[in-house]
Specification:
By secondary structure, the chain is α/β, with parallel strands linked by helices. Helices cover 38% and strands 22% of the residues. The protein has helices spanning 13-28, 49-59, and strands at residues 6-11, 36-41, 63-66. Strands 1-2-3 form a 3-stranded parallel beta sheet, covered by helices on one side.
Length: 72
């Protein structure tokens, strides 16, 4: 898998699922974090504060979250 890039994306609930899928790919499939990229649109909050810190340390630099002011 070293030569493959994984782009996981979704909107709304699909964005939340993309966030979880990206973390799953990194944690359970042993894929280099630089090969996993997450892009979400209007995704709701997925993690509590502690889990969000963990996610940020694993995939924070490879995540783009697009949202409007006022989105949850």
């Amino acid at each position: 898998f070293e030569e493959l890039d994984f782009y996981v994306t979704g909107h709304s609930l699909g964005g939340a699922q993309a966030t979880l899928a990206g973390l799953f790919l990194k944690r359970h499939q042993r894929i280099e974090a630089s090969n996993v990229h997450i892009v979400t649109f209007g995704s709701p909050r997925v993690f509590n504060e502690d889990a969000a810190k963990n996610y940020q340390s694993v995939l924070g630099d490879d995540t783009v979250r697009v949202h409007q002011p006022g989105d949850i």
